[in-house]
Specification:
Elements lengths: L6 H4 L7 H7 L2 H13 L5 H17 L2 E7 L11 E3 L16 H5 E2 L19 E5 L6 E5 L2 E12 L8 H21 L8 E15 H5 L2 H6 L24 H16 L4 E6 L5 E6 L2 E2 H21 L2 E4 L13 E9 L16 H16 L1 H7 L21 E2 L2 H13 L10 E2 L9 E2 L11 E3 L4 E3 L9 H24 L3 H16 L11 H10 L7 H4 L6 H9 L5 H55 L5 H33 L4 H26 L12 H6 L2
Parallel strand pairs: 1-6, 13-16
Antiparallel strand pairs: 1-2, 3-4, 4-6, 5-6, 7-9, 7-10, 7-11, 7-12, 8-9, 12-17, 14-15, 16-17
Helix pairs in contact: 6-14, 9-10, 11-14, 11-15, 12-14, 13-15, 14-15, 19-20, 19-21, 20-21
Bound molecules: adenosine-5'-diphosphate (ADP) and magnesium ion.
Protein name: Glutamine synthetase III
GO molecular function, one term: glutamine synthetase activity
Family: Belongs to the glutamine synthetase family.
Length: 704
């Protein structure tokens, strides 16, 4: 890659985007396709044939030899099967490059090995991928050469969603319909569409590639299962926003270049709180594109890391003792003509529509806090949520002083006749301008914070897809909008009715608003008094999917059927059990084959030293004996914990898949893993570093 990057030139060069389509497609086909993309008009096979042909020609010019239907099954990562464009050889032995409309719009991967939670009986393992023309196709260049990637949805033969994308698109339809209905009531006759906009900030760790390969735990599970804290952690706060090291800077440069080519608007990059931790944020995009782009971001971060002799860790908690990684999901609702429904304007009390939207969101989040919590649960995130660093496991909303004041006025007097002014932020430095202070301050401890003109949902895990949180947000807010429109459309006095409704929503759901410190013990108690759910772990969060309230909600808005929800629940339990099983078995493997033998060697060296000294003279050997005793004690403890972990892991794997098994893994296997880790981490602090069988935390965190 060259040193000079002409960003405007390369941006989107590998994307089959609007300008490419306009330039290459016949006018009529282009117009029809636009209607399909924007208004959901049906796509004919003739159209698809023309589009497929042009897409193929374009991709071949970019060096593509293959195409793939790129989809997002319930594995958390993307899946793809590559097909070359070639046709069967002709009599003269030559092949042609072809790609039909049918191949563009529909694929039939062998779906039996993707998680389906029983939706697809294996004897009938057909699954289909269907082109999502609202997310542009792109060419990806990597070691496989160049591949035309076609974003698709993945469904069963009978149309049940087997992926992240399908429900997301369904939820976008629901929020579009209900938001339009709502803004029409306020006299908006011009907007044609309302789209949830999403900006996903991605956190990650970078470690040295060779050291990574010496850690079996990182290889198998993506996180360290053992590891004593180094002398230095993140206490100096010197990494956050610190100067980016050259090696990392050169990595980021290549990541950006790759992302820009694929049309991902990578915008912000900085060091994060923990050593070796970084963040990348793109500019927000329509939800389905943002979800796709986030997958591209994660893949690109990993791929480029290897090229730089590094490894990118996307796990939520790669290292105990320093911060884990999350993904802030910024969400707002924007019309096709650029109006953000979450923009309060300068004087929020004037902006009735904004207040109604806000009050509906407050209602939605309060009513379905359990679903939102569930949407952010994944195996790795259990180490963050509620673990005193990232947002707490209790859902609450942070509005900021100005808006909270408006809500308080509304609830107490039924009127809001003034807004707190932002005031000036005086820097005290004459040469700096006086900045207009943002009237909404930041609160980093809130899981769901209003940040000016969007909500920032901060619970999502770094490795997880952002699809589920947005499915939930879109649907729960669509429901609140629908209920509002049902009332307001019938109202005789609209102004009065809006006013009453805003007040009612705020008064009934005010308990979800919390502007204080979300990490504090007092908040846990206070939230309990308020009756807010405090769901501490993934296995306890999963049942939220299938409560009556959830089924009613999702069925009403045609986002999930009951069967689809039940299947998702099953998939989640299975995923949890499998992940913990792998972690437990990795620990057993590492402890048995690497750690215990290393500790025995160390103990032997101590014994030899004692004997040697004694043979030579009668000098003091109390240090060696002390160490030997301590080492032997911890070794015995390790062995005991190891045996217990084996027993429990075996018991867990014998159980039938489902809730009970997942609960057993969580309540029995996880503590046994902790119990094994404790003596091993103590041993690491004693044993000769030369003899310890893997790089330490210090080696991994400070030596990139
Ligand atoms: P902050 O400092 O508030 O987190 P940033 O400007 O860094 O804000 O934005 C964080 C993320 O939020 C970015 O991905 C950005 O594109 C996205 N974002 C900004 N405005 C909106 C919006 N109206 N809707 C959705 N996402 C947004
Ligand atoms: Mg942010």
């Amino acid at each position: 890659m060259s040193d000079y990057i002409n960003v405007t030139e390369i941006f989107g060069e590998n994307v089959f985007n609007d300008s490419v389509m306009q330039a290459r497609l016949p006018k009529k086909v282009y117009r029809d396709l636009k209607q399909t993309i924007e208004e959901g008009k049906e796509l004919t096979l003739e159209m698809a044939d023309v589009i497929a042909h042009e897409m193929k020609e374009w991709a071949i010019e970019k060096g593509a030899t293959h195409y793939t239907h790129w989809f997002q099954p319930l594995t958390g990562v993307t899946a793809e099967k590559h097909d070359a464009f070639i046709t069967a050889p002709k009599p003269d032995g030559k092949v042609l490059m072809s790609f039909s409309g049918k191949e563009l719009i529909k694929g039939e991967p062998d779906a039996s090995s993707f998680p389906s939670g029983g939706l697809r009986a294996t004897f009938e393992a057909r699954g289909y991928t269907a082109w999502d023309c609202t997310s542009p196709a792109f060419v990806r260049q990597d070691a496989a050469g160049a591949t035309l990637c076609i974003p698709t949805a993945f469904c069963s033969y009978t149309g049940e969603a087997l992926d992240q994308k399908t429900p997301l698109l369904r939820s976008m339809q629901a929020i579009n319909r209900e938001a339009l209905r709502l803004i029409r009531l306020f006299g908006n006759t011009t907007s044609k569409k309302v789209t949830p906009s999403v900006g996903a900030e991605q956190e990650y760790f970078l470690v040295d590639g060779e050291k990574f390969l010496q850690r079996k735990d990182l290889i198998y599970t993506g996180r360290t299962l053992f590891g004593a804290m180094p002398p230095k952690g993140q206490e100096m706060d010197d990494h956050y926003f610190g100067a980016i090291r050259q090696k990392v800077a050169s990595y980021m440069k290549d990541v950006n270049e790759e992302l820009w080519k694929m049309g991902v608007s990578a915008k912000t990059q900085h060091n994060e709180v923990a050593p070796a931790q970084h963040e990348l944020a793109p500019i927000y995009a329509p939800a389905n594109i943002a979800v796709d782009h986030n997958q591209i971001v994660m893949q690109t971060l990993k791929r480029i890391a290897k090229e730089h002799g590094l490894r990118c860790l996307l796990h939520e908690k790669p290292f105990a003792g320093v911060n884990g990684s999350g993904k802030h999901n910024n969400w707002s609702l924007v019309t096709d003509d650029g109006i953000n429904l979450l923009d309060p304007g300068k004087t929020p009390h004037d902006n009735v529509q904004f207040l109604l939207v806000l009050s509906c969101i407050i209602k939605a989040v309060d009513r379905h806090a359990d679903l939102l919590r569930e949407s952010a649960s994944d195996v790795g995130n259990d180490h963050r949520l509620g673990a005193n660093e990232a947002p707490p496991a209790i859902i609450s909303i942070y509005l900021g002083e100005q808006l909270e004041d408006v809500v308080n006025q509304l609830v107490s007097t039924g009127m809001a006749d003034h807004s707190l002014k932002g005031g000036k932020l005086l820097t005290g430095v004459k040469t700096l301008p006086d900045l207009a202070k943002d009237a909404t301050d930041r609160n980093r401890t809130s899981p769901f914070a209003f940040t000016g003109n969007k909500f920032e949902f901060r619970m999502v895990g770094s490795r997880d897809s952002v699809a589920s949180p947005n499915v939930v947000l879109n649907t729960i807010v669509a429901e609140a909008f629908q209920e509002a429109s049902d009332v307001l459309e019938k109202a005789e006095d609209f102004e009065l009715a809006v006013h009453d409704l805003i007040k009612e929503n705020c008064a009934r759901h005010q308990r979800i608003i919390f502007n204080g410190n979300g990490y504090s013990e007092e908040w846990v108690k206070e939230a309990g008094r308020r009756g807010l759910p405090n769901i501490g772990c993934m296995v306890d969060a999963i049942p939220a999917l299938v409560t009556d309230r959830s089924v009613q909600l999702f069925e009403k808005f045609k986002v999930f059927t009951r069967t689809e929800l039940e299947s998702r629940m099953e998939v989640k339990y299975e995923t949890y059990s499998k992940a913990i099983n792998i972690e437990a078995r990795a620990m057993i493997d590492i402890a048995s084959k690497q750690i215990i033998p290393a500790v025995i060697r160390y103990a032997q060296s101590l014994a030899e030293s004692i004997n040697a000294v004694r043979a030579a003279c009668d000098a003091d050997v109390s240090v060696q004996t002390g160490l030997l005793k301590e080492t032997s004690r911890l070794l015995a403890e390790t062995k005991k914990a190891l045996e217990e972990l084996k027993v429990r892991t075996d018991a867990a794997s014998m159980m039938e898949e489902g809730a009970d098994q997942a609960q057993y893994y969580h309540r029995q296997v996880c503590p046994a893993m902790e119990a094994l880790r404790a003596p091993v981490d103590q041993l690491e602090m004693i044993v000769d570093k030369e003899m310890w069988p893997m790089p330490s935390y210090g080696d991994l965190l400070f030596e990139v």
